[in-house]
Design brief:
The complex is a heterodimer. By secondary structure, chain A is mainly β. Helix content of chain A is 5%, strand content 48%. Chain A contains 5 helices and 57 strands. By secondary structure, chain B is mostly beta strands. Chain B starts with 6 loop residues before the first strand and ends with a helix. The chains are: A mainly beta, B mainly beta. Chain A: One of its GO terms (biological process) is maturation of SSU-rRNA from tricistronic rRNA transcript (SSU-rRNA, 5.8S rRNA, LSU-rRNA). Chain A: Pfam families: WD40.
Chain lengths: 686, 839
């Protein structure tokens, strides 16, 4: 496997932001997640929940609700505006002010014609969804208290609105209130404490289900306006509700961190009179669950503890596989760290600032597995705050460590770093070419002479860097210009001569840097590319996909390599396929050309392409067995995959030019310790 | 049970009443529970034992109300029969012979004439396997019917009968085994099975422990080893089945029961807290804590007004639906082990042994009723496994029952042993024992044995301990305090060559104390504390010591660990006789010369009863049981039997009870005793055509007697005589108060029984009453010959009078005179009866 000196970095205090809202789109199988910091992420549900899109947030932009209308995504927040997102370019399209004070909730009807928002001033405002914009239509009857939650009847003729102490049912046609359902304040609570109806769901059979701050899930009849049944779910709040497509299952998220499932079951088998019965309880969160969504085969929940939990419903899953396992997504499927390979610098990307660190140094050599004495501690060189309110979208440091670049939704900034002894200073490069106004992805060439920027306009811009400044050189565009709609470039991999870019439509383009022309396109695979790399000597493009498949594509021959075909033919080991986080980086070791280094959140893996592939019968994690075997037998037992699980919660692994590995870890315990205290619960035997 | 035809071993009362869930009768008046070979019927109101349904010859393993007739109950037994009883009158209606040992019974309203039984799978396979079979009970007028139509419903079911339950309207049956739940639908003849993982990530143990089905909804509640309760629904789908989980119990759920309306679910476990879950509203639950031992079964009455829990300490608690305990039926408490000897409280004649942890229980053998628990340790007992807590290990009564000595101990396993010797005196005022003296360091090491001197004047306690000493404790006035109360203090410390003592015993008149030190028996005089003599017969350490009684008091019997039973003559100080027999327990009868020796050989226990002066055993009973016997006691009879049979003579004065290792209390019963019991039970057999009420019992018997009287061939003297005085009075006094008719009804009858009839035939009941009282008088005076003649004559005269009542003749006045005379006598004798029957 080879031995490396490892820099185990734990000073990247990345703090994922809590999840505030979820919205599931059945047609395109995407789930949108809104976080506390205002960022919106889109996950692909049938592609192992790969994080396809990240739209960074802004300061002071709390999102309270998300809603899909067709394939368009809208959000509303406490700043009083309704925002539509440009998902192809991963940016905000426009924001419309609703003029009703802070917006607590947003809901689109199933017909896709209208959006309703609930405002602080007690109005429910209807917006018409047009081709390219939304248009205010009218207000429904104004209420005294704020509107906390909204739900459309599937026919679109009625709206249920949850408020303080009550639920109102509006007729959309007339705009008048049809019923007032009073939610009682619960026993044992003080009279002055209001009962907040956090969430309502309007079913097609006229049942309204509400979750409130008293901890009750209540079922109401909209014809008579009466309470049918109430379930006491928790002692604290029921914050979120979500119903399945065919309305036979309902999930409720509570502030205790539990998700409670209700099912619409006939009490007597074979008969039709069904009732809502509380069935399962899932406890996967430590903190408040702010949003739940029941998608076709799973329950997705997110909350204050910033993790997105996908709990499969095994009764709905047809085939049990790795794709239908319990999944907890803690970290973004993007790299937040970039390394200057030659100078030992690391750039950490936080939402609002950048940090530049110099790696520590150690002396001597030690036994494998032992920790070395640190001669020089790692040192924080730079803390760079972002100008403006937008959060950072991407950033990079050049391999030589001289250049730093970052981009927000609105601007791109390039800095030059002067580093002599202990004095660190930066100078901003002021005159940037017009094309560098904003970037989705940034990358420096390996000799630090060029900067590549994936623009929102379907292309990669090439900028040459020099002491004096920077100069726009050219734009790389895909060969066939048939795709005129822009697409976000995900990865730029540069290797002197070749540059590969992958986009969210799963296309991978290879460009020749010398001719600045498109060279070829890798055949499109159904799953998204999560990481790729170009081999420095063989010029093969190595790609990792979200479904854990891997491909090697020879750029020169424009075809898959024999090894790649062999992998496809023999298939990968079961254990490899069952991993639930995508590979985030592909590296090559110049000393061992046949080695490919990969990593995901839980492991570091070296694939030795010269060794045979394991089949399902062989032992996958075989390092310990190999160790115990005598030298001559090792050969017959070894296979291509060598997995190292020493490191956990890995954010980034990078191979430096001095053959040392940098492993950036972010232990989940540290994340948990920085979260606010959860609701105190009595635990048995304490 | 083979050699001696008329003496047989019977499982005596005090047997487990918590083996199977108790049943509450439809009218909520009776609780039925299995108890050894019989089914016991208790009243729910008074907790009184009414009667037992006897007839099975082996352990009764299940009872179920007959769904077709709520006054009948099915019982199944390991003897391979199912019996149908009228439980109110205690009449066996039918016996169905199945032919296999049965382990549980289930019935369902939908399946009329079918019972479902647990039977063991073919015994050749080693692993325990049970199968559930449906048995069609043939309709036949005969008393004993063989039921042949067996059809297996499922094989490989759990041996625990609470893991099987019938679903809504008997449409399906749910049964669980280990980690699999199966639901069998009778109509579709299809089984759906669902399995759980053995453990989940959090280490939960998911094995099923019990099942209950909702009466109206299709919902199955299952209890699990880790204390979870799951409610399963939609179980006709292979995949879309669903369950909800509730967790309150911290240990295995032992039992689950839906109330008949299905509004609540009751659960219980080792916590001894009855939990009531509101069905359908998730978490709302009510608790009834501190019920005693861990809950084994819960059952509900059919109207939902009463619940019954049975507990591991052999107790049934009757609980109202408002969650209030309204009755406790306590059987003989059986803890993990009986550490004390079996003893008889000389005052109450109650059996005394370990009861609840840290308590001594007093159990009336006569009434088969738990009397009370005496708290010895007086510390809170913590229900948790693995804790070392104080336990009563020794107890002894003095001969009058005025003093009780107890030893409690903690730390048997660990090195630091703690023990107390406590002396309790009987307080006449409170009618219980009061702590008199606590001796903290009676010995430096564990007390092995102790005994009270048996003399009447002075009471002395001798304790022997592992520190090589024996101590005599006397009650003396404390010189310092000069208080009225007398406390116990050490009187004498003795030892013998630093040997470890093994046993001690006082002679019948307390003039001698025998203490055995390893292989040596030392005889001491308790008056002067002088070592009188030593007796030794190596090899083997002395195990038991016992002085002979009455005419054999010059003998001392000892047993050794090397299979030797020796009889020493204390006058000659020589070995009288010895025999090689392995004796595990030696027990002498205080009322006779007899000594009983239990010998354990080749996996079964034999009993020998012998007199020390006769080398030949009086009575031998081979193969009493298959376990070793360490505890036995002779219980004096209230009234001696007069058996002439030689083999059962030794049982005339007292009865021998013994406890096996798996805590069965057994005794010997003789043929005459059983006859007497049988006759007393047949007394209650009455005409089936009439509704049976206690009132009927009262009236009906007299009617019967009158019928007999009216038969011309009948001779008054030939009739079986009632031993007691007045039937009416006996009935009044012996029938439990709660089953009596209103006092107004009784009163009129009572008064009418005193009236004199002069209208003869016209007033039948009154006459009958008179007649009967006359008969009773007859029976009483039977021995006195002179008057008996005259009475017989009288009754004949009476008969004649009946025949010709409307003839007015001069004789009539004479007859009237006579009648008056007779009436005077009758009245008087009746009074005598009243006095006699007063306890």
């Amino acid at each position: 496997m080879g031995e490396f000196k490892v820099h185990r970095v734990r000073f990247f205090d990345y703090m994922p932001s809590g999840i505030r809202a979820l919205a599931f789109n059945r047609d395109i199988e995407r789930i949108a997640v809104a976080r506390m910091d205002g960022s919106v992420e889109v996950f692909h549900c049938s592609d192992r929940f790969f994080q396809e899109k990240i739209i960074p947030g802004r300061e002071q932009c709390g999102i309270e609700g998300l809603s899909w209308v067709g394939e368009r995504l809208f959000s509303a927040g406490l700043n009083g505006g309704i925002t539509e997102y440009d998902l192809t370019n991963q940016k905000v399209k426009y924001t419309v002010d609703a003029y009703g004070g802070p917006i607590w909730t947003i809901a689109g009807n199933q017909q896709g014609t209208h959006l309703a928002v609930g405002c602080e001033d007690g109005t429910v405002k209807l917006f018409e969804v047009n081709e390219d914009k939304i248009q205010f239509e009218r207000n429904l009857d104004r209420q005294k208290s704020r509107i906390i939650s909204l739900s459309w009847h599937p026919s679109g003729s009625k709206i249920a609105a949850g408020m303080m102490d009550m639920i109102q049912i509006f007729n959309v046609e007339t705009g008048h209130s049809v019923h007032r359902l009073l939610a009682d304040r619960g026993v044992g609570t003080s009279r002055s404490k209001e009962c907040v109806v956090w969430s309502v769901v309007y079913l097609s059979d006229g049942t309204i289900i509400s979750g409130d701050s008293v901890g009750m899930v209540k079922l109401w009849d909209d014809q008579t306006g009466t309470l049918i049944k109430s379930h006491n779910v928790t002692k604290c709040d029921v914050l979120a509700l979500s119903v399945s497509q065919n309305e036979d299952s309902l999930v409720a998220g509570t502030s205790e961190g539990t998700v409670v499932q209700f099912q619409f079951i006939s009490m007597v088998l074979g008969k039709d009179d069904k009732e809502w019965v509380r069935t399962r309880t899932f406890k996967n969160h430590t903190h408040d669950i702010r949003a739940v969504a029941e998608i076709t085969t799973a329950v997705v929940s997110g909350g204050m503890d910033a993790q997105l939990v996908v709990r499969p419903l095994l009764d709905k899953v047809e085939v049990r596989s790795a794709a239908s396992a319990l999944r907890k997504i803690h970290f973004p499927h993007r790299r937040l760290v970039s390394c200057a390979r030659k100078s030992g610098l690391m750039l950490f990307q936080y939402p609002g600032h950048l940090e530049l660190w110099r790696l520590g140094e150690s002396e001597g050599k030690g036994m494998p597995g032992s920790s070395l004495f640190v001669k020089r501690n790692p040192e924080k060189l730079l803390h760079l705050k972002v100008k403006g309110e937008d959060h950072i979208r991407c950033s990079a440091v050049s391999p030589c460590g001289e250049w730093i670049v970052y981009s927000t939704a609105s601007s791109l900034r390039l800095y030059r770093l002067h580093c002599d002894n202990n004095n660190v200073s930066i100078t901003k490069i002021s005159k940037l070419p017009m094309v560098l106004s904003s970037a989705n992805q940034l990358c420096f060439s390996s000799d630090s002479s060029h900067l590549f920027s994936a623009s929102t306009q379907s292309s990669v811009h090439l900028v040459s860097l020099s002491q004096s400044g920077c100069k726009f050189v050219g734009t790389l565009k895909p060969k066939s210009g048939e795709r005129t709609i822009g697409f976000g470039v995900l990865h730029i991999i540069e290797d002197g001569k070749w540059l590969a870019s992958a986009n969210s439509d799963h296309e991978v383009h290879i460009y020749n840097l010398q001719t600045r022309k498109a060279h070829c396109t890798v055949p499109v695979y159904s799953s998204a590319v999560t990481a790729m790399g170009i081999h420095p000597t063989t010029n093969c493009l190595f790609m990792m996909y979200a479904d854990q498949q891997m491909c090697e594509y020879s750029i020169e021959q424009k075809q898959y390599t024999d090894w790649s075909r062999m992998v496809q033919r023999k298939g990968l080991h079961r254990f490899w396929m069952e991993r639930d986080t995508p590979c985030l980086n592909v590296m090559f070791n110049p000393q061992h050309p046949s080695h490919v280094i990969l990593h995901d959140t839980y492991m570091l893996c070296i694939i030795d392409q010269s060794l045979p592939l394991p089949d399902d019968k062989t032992q996958f994690y075989n390092q310990l067995t190999l160790k115990s075997l005598p030298e001559e037998q090792r050969k017959s037992h070894s296979h291509a995959f060598k997995v190292c699980k020493t490191f956990k919660d890995i954010l980034c692994v990078e191979l430096m030019s001095d053959q040392s590995l940098v492993v950036v870890e972010r232990p989940l315990e540290d994340v948990a310790s920085q979260l606010p205290a959860p609701i105190k619960q009595k635990k048995f035997a304490t | 049970m083979v050699e001696e035809s008329d003496v047989r071993v019977v499982r005596f009362g005090g047997s487990k009443i918590n083996l199977r869930p108790p049943i509450i009768s439809t009218d909520s008046r009776f609780v039925l529970c299995t108890s050894g070979d019989s089914v016991k019927v208790y009243s729910t109101r008074t907790e009184e034992w009414l009667h037992s349904l006897q007839g099975h010859t082996n352990q009764v393993t299940g009872i179920a109300l007959n769904p077709a007739n709520h006054l009948q109950v099915y019982s199944c037994s390991a003897d391979g029969t199912v019996k149908l009883w009228d439980f109110i009158d205690g009449i066996l209606i039918k016996t169905f012979i199945i032919g296999y040992p049965l382990f549980a019974i289930y019935v369902s309203e939908k399946h009329e004439g079918i019972v479902f039984l647990h039977i063991a799978m073919d015994t050749d396979s080693k692993k325990e396997g049970f199968q559930l079979v449906a048995v069609h009970l043939p309709k036949s007028a005969e008393q004993e019917v063989e039921a042949k139509e067996l059809s297996a419903v499922s094989s490989h079911i759990s041996p625990n009968p609470s893991c099987t339950a019938f679903g809504r309207e008997g449409q399906y049956i749910a049964f669980a085994r280990n980690l699999q739940l199966n639901v069998y639908f009778f109509r579709k003849q299809k089984t759906y099975s669902f399995s759980l993982k053995a453990t989940d990530k959090k280490g939960a143990k998911n094995a099923f422990t019990c099942i209950a089905c909702h009466p109206t909804d299709d919902c199955i509640a299952t209890g699990h080893e880790d204390g979870k309760i799951r409610l399963w629904r939609n179980f006709i789908h292979k995949k879309e089945y669903t369950y909800s989980t509730q967790h309150w119990h911290h240990n295995a759920v032992n039992t689950l029961c839906f109330t008949p309306e299905g509004t609540n679910l009751l659960s219980g476990g080792i916590e001894s807290v009855l939990v009531q879950w509101q069905y359908g509203t998730g978490n709302r639950k009510e608790f009834l804590p501190r019920l005693g031992g861990s809950i084994l079964h819960v059952s509900a009455s059919s109207d939902g007004q009463l619940f019954c829990t049975s507990h591991s300490d052999n107790k049934i608690t009757v609980i109202e639906s408002s969650f209030k305990v309204c009755g406790v039926i306590q059987g003989l408490v059986k803890g993990d082990a009986v550490l004390t000897d079996l003893m008889i409280d000389p005052r109450s004649k109650a059996l005394v042994l370990n009861g609840k942890p840290g308590h001594l229980q007093f159990y009336s053998l006569l009434r088969d009723k738990h009397l009370y628990n005496l708290d010895i340790v007086q510390q809170e007992y913590i229900y948790e496994a693995g804790l070392d807590q104080f336990e009563v290990v020794k107890a002894a009564f003095d001969i009058k029952g005025y003093w009780l000595a107890t030893v409690e101990e903690r730390g048997q396993k660990s090195a630091d042993l703690e023990f107390f010797l406590k002396l309790w005196s009987y307080d006449e005022r409170t009618q219980s024992f009061v702590l008199n003296t606590t001796i903290t360091a009676a010995h430096t090491d564990r007390i092995i044995s102790m005994c009270f001197s048996s003399s009447e004047e002075t009471t002395m306690l001798v304790t022997i301990a592992e520190d090589g000493q024996f101590k005599a404790w006397c009650q003396g006035v404390d010189a310092d305090t000069k208080q009225d109360q007398n406390f116990w203090s050490c009187d004498f410390v003795g030892s013998y060559h630093n040997l470890k003592p093994t046993n001690c015993s006082f002679s019948a008149d307390s003039s001698l104390l025998a203490v055995s030190f390893q292989e040596v028996i030392t005889i001491w005089s308790p008056d002067t504390w002088e070592l009188l003599t030593t007796l030794c017969q190596p090899p083997g350490v002395i195990r038991d010591l016992c002085f002979g009684r009455l005419s054999c008091s010059k003998y001392l019997i000892s047993t050794t660990t090397r299979n030797l039973l020796c009889c020493w003559n204390l006058l000659t100080c020589a070995l009288e006789w010895s025999t090689s027999v392995e004796v595990s327990k030696l027990q002498s009868d205080p009322l006779s010369e007899n000594v009983a020796a239990f010998s354990y050989q080749s996996k079964h226990t034999d009993l020998f009863v012998f007199k020390p002066n006769e080398p030949r055993p009086l009575f031998t009973h081979k193969n009493v049981c298959s376990e070793k016997i360490h505890r036995a006691v002779f219980v004096p009879r209230e009234e001696p039997l007069n058996n002439c049979d030689e083999s059962s003579q030794w049982l005339n004065r007292s009865q021998l009870y013994f406890l096996t290792q798996n805590m069965d209390l057994l005794t010997f019963s003789t043929a005459t005793e059983e006859d007497r019991m049988l006759s007393s039970s047949t007394r209650l057999v009455i005409d089936d055509s009439v509704a049976v009420t206690p009132f009927y019992l009262l009236l009906g018997k007299h009617r019967q007697q009158q019928q007999k009287l009216n038969t011309p061939s009948h001779q008054a003297a030939d009739r079986p005589q009632q031993p007691q005085g007045s039937v009416t009075i006996t009935e009044l006094l012996h029938t439990p108060a709660h089953v009596l008719p209103p006092a107004s009804v009784l009163c009129s009858m009572f008064v009418s029984s005193l009236l004199i009839s002069n209208t003869g035939v016209l007033q039948d009941p009154l006459r009958k009453e008179m007649e009967s009282s006359e008969q009773e008088m007859n029976s009483e005076k039977e021995e006195e010959d002179s008057e008996g003649e005259m009475e017989a004559c009288d009754s004949q005269q009476e008969l004649r009078v009946q025949g010709s009542v409307d003839e007015v003749t001069p004789k009539l006045s004479k007859a009237q005179e006579r009648e008056l005379k007779r009436v005077r006598k009758t009245d008087f004798s009746w009074m005598a009866g009243l006095i006699a029957s007063k306890p």
